[in-house]
């Protein structure tokens, strides 16, 4: 996730430019495959455009060449053979000077003659820099030093893959005191912050774990991890004792008090507004309060931008209701969903039948 579009030049495939600031707001996502399908430009074309026009890593570019001219020159594809060669060799090797010269000559010729009409007119006054393209910048784009396929990064990439593929919950006991001391917040403010910002996600994850058939992912049997890595995979009682169907039902029924509303977003996303059982907020507090310092930073005066929106005495009224995906509710709380649909007379009510439960033979 980044607002820097140059990340595509370094090999990123899909980018979220900005996280939404409002609930249920669409996520602005860009995919290199979609860009290529829509514009006909691949990663190598984008690199050439950046070299010609300039980027955050080469702010000068070529004087007189704007985005339209750079895109037009990229469509000739004179650069692709050279860039493919660079991709196939190590960044320590020099560029093929003959191919570099051919690229320089071909781009200059098209600027002056526009043989295929890819640019709007002839630009006889534009002259490329004799050192074009900059070898170091090209290499940095094609062989970034932080590339995940680099040999030195393979162990770290494997560890990252494990962290992404297997279930983890934040270590609230350590996270809360870290936040408290890092930002110098009094305990009441820490609790309000965590309640307003983290509790909604905490409840969604709690609900997801109650889905019928949900299994907590485990490490692959053939995966070799160090003792420090294994320590990251917390073991719970569920790993040793399977809950009975009755216990699971009781656990699920304790999550939501009732459904209070429904809505549809963009004609596709169907949501219920649920009201959580307050006992889960107490359980959440029990996890984050354990190692908080109750006496620390009591005299600290918060900035106005920090304190804004956190003055209310009872934040429970802010977080007790939350919009949740209807499919998830039907999976975990079918009886609540059916009861709401039966007792609600609204023109915009969507009726999604919950999945039928199989009876034991």
Characterization of the model:
- The chain is mainly alpha-helical and 361 residues long.
- Among the domains are: 40-142, no CATH class; 169-212 and 253-299 and 312-355, no CATH class.
- Helix content is 43%, strand content 9%.
- It has 17 helices and five strands.
- It has a three-stranded antiparallel sheet. Strands 1-2 form a two-stranded antiparallel ribbon.
- β3 (256-265) and β4 form a beta hairpin.
- α2 packs across α3 (67-74).
- The longest helix has 17 residues, at 97-113.
- The protein is elongated, with a radius of gyration of 28 Å.
- The two termini are 50 Å apart.
- Mean pLDDT is 79; it is low at 218-223, 231-243 and 245-252.
For this entry, give a set of tags.
5'-flap endonuclease activity; XPG-I_dom; elongated; XPG-I domain-containing protein; 43% helix; mainly alpha; PIN-like_dom_sf; 3-stranded antiparallel sheet; 9% strand; XPG/Rad2; 361 residues
Q: In percent terms, what proportion of residues is strand?
A: 5-15%
According to DSSP, the number of beta strands is 5
General form:
elongated
As a whole number of angstroms, the C-alpha radius of gyration is 28 Å
Arrangement of strands in the largest sheet: 3-4-5
Instruction: Output the helix-strand order.
Output: EEHHHHHHHHHHHHEEHHHEHH
Q: Summarize the amount of helix as a percent range.
A: 40-55%
Protein name: XPG-I domain-containing protein
Domain XPG-I: 1-56
GO molecular function: 5'-flap endonuclease activity
Organism: Rhizopus delemar (strain RA 99-880 / ATCC MYA-4621 / FGSC 9543 / NRRL 43880)
């Amino acid at each position: 996730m980044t607002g820097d579009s140059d990340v595509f030049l370094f090999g990123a495939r899909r980018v979220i430019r900005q996280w939404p600031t409002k609930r249920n707001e669409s996520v602005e996502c860009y995919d290199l495959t979609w860009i290529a399908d829509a514009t006909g430009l691949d990663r190598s074309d984008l690199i050439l455009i950046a070299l010609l026009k300039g980027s955050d890593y080469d702010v000068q570019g070529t004087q007189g060449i704007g985005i339209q001219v750079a895109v037009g020159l990229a469509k000739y594809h004179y650069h692709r053979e050279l860039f493919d060669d660079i991709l196939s060799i190590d960044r320590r090797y020099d560029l093929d000077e003959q191919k570099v010269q051919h690229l320089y000559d071909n781009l200059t010729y098209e600027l002056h003659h526009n043989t295929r009409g890819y640019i709007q007119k002839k630009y006889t006054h534009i002259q490329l820099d004799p050192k074009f393209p900059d070898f170091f910048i090209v290499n940095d784009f094609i062989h970034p030093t932080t590339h995940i396929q680099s040999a030195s990064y393979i162990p770290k990439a494997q560890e990252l893959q494990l962290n992404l593929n297997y279930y983890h919950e934040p270590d609230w006991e350590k996270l809360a005191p870290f936040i408290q001391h890092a930002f110098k917040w009094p305990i009441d403010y820490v609790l309000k912050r965590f309640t307003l910002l983290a509790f909604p996600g905490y409840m969604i994850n709690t609900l997801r774990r109650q889905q019928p058939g949900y299994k907590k992912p485990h490490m692959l049997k053939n995966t070799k991890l160090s003792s420090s890595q294994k320590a990251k995979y917390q073991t719970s009682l569920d790993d040793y004792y399977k809950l009975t169907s009755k216990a699971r039902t009781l656990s699920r029924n304790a999550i939501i008090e009732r459904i209070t509303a429904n809505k549809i977003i963009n004609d596709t996303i169907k949501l219920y507004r649920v009201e959580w059982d307050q006992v889960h907020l107490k359980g959440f507090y029990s996890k984050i309060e354990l190692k908080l310092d109750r006496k620390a930073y009591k005299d600290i005066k918060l900035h106005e931008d920090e304190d804004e929106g956190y003055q209310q005495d009872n934040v429970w009224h802010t977080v007790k209701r939350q919009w949740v995906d209807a499919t998830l509710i039907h999976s975990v709380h079918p009886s609540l969903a059916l009861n709401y649909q039966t007792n609600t007379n609204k023109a915009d009510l969507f009726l999604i039948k919950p999945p039928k439960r199989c009876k034991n033979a």
